[in-house]
Input
Amino acid sequence: MRPHPFAIPAILACCLSFCHPAWADPQFRLLVLAAPNKYHYEYIPVARESFEQLGKLHAFEMTYATQLWALDGDLKRYSAIVLLNTSGEEFSEAQRRKFEEYVDGGGNVAIVHRAIIIPPGKWPWYEKLVGRSFTIHPKMQTAVVRTVDKAFPATFGVPERWIWSDEWYELANPHNVAIRPVLNVDERTYDPTRIWPGQVANGMGAEHPVSWYHHVGGRKARVFVSALGHDVNMYRDRHYLDHLYGGIWWAATGNGIAAP
Output
């Protein structure tokens, strides 16, 4: 991935914000981790505003944190943890243990875009949690995203054929994890080989998932993953927010899966 041309603003690097909408009886509580890194930071205030609006609209409570020491608190109070462009590679050893305990105890997770990426072998448990391992991506391009699971709520608010521009992550499955694809990108609609000099990307063929879900921990914990969400403006897009909230809602509650 290419670094952003601007340095990470210090104010974002040290900011930790908590947002608790004043619902008398919220449906559920989320911890949204949105820690800045050299590739993603401009999205943080925009995503926070959008998540606050979602919380008001859908009656859930949220802690929106930009520092990883939010993981040091009581995680059991959260119905789901949302890793928003925040990968497990940034967790301390103690935070890894707490996060594993949370998931192994039935805690649920939504993993968004950059949060998919972790160096191979650095934390195999996390790679299995994600369900796929990042290998490379071509330059950002417009393509057609296809719905492959109409029964899953992360597809309810998006067109069956959706024109979208993103980094089309290429993925591997070194741990042989079974996932349920939700959205695929049609590689015939962009150039998978369009990449920076010295790098090689070839695409994944007809089955190229960009969103999926599965269960871990003896099916106790729900995991929703979306590889979409590179640009800050995406966090203002109605279809994208519908996609994210549908997956997060399922992760937090288990609700929404329609009969095929």
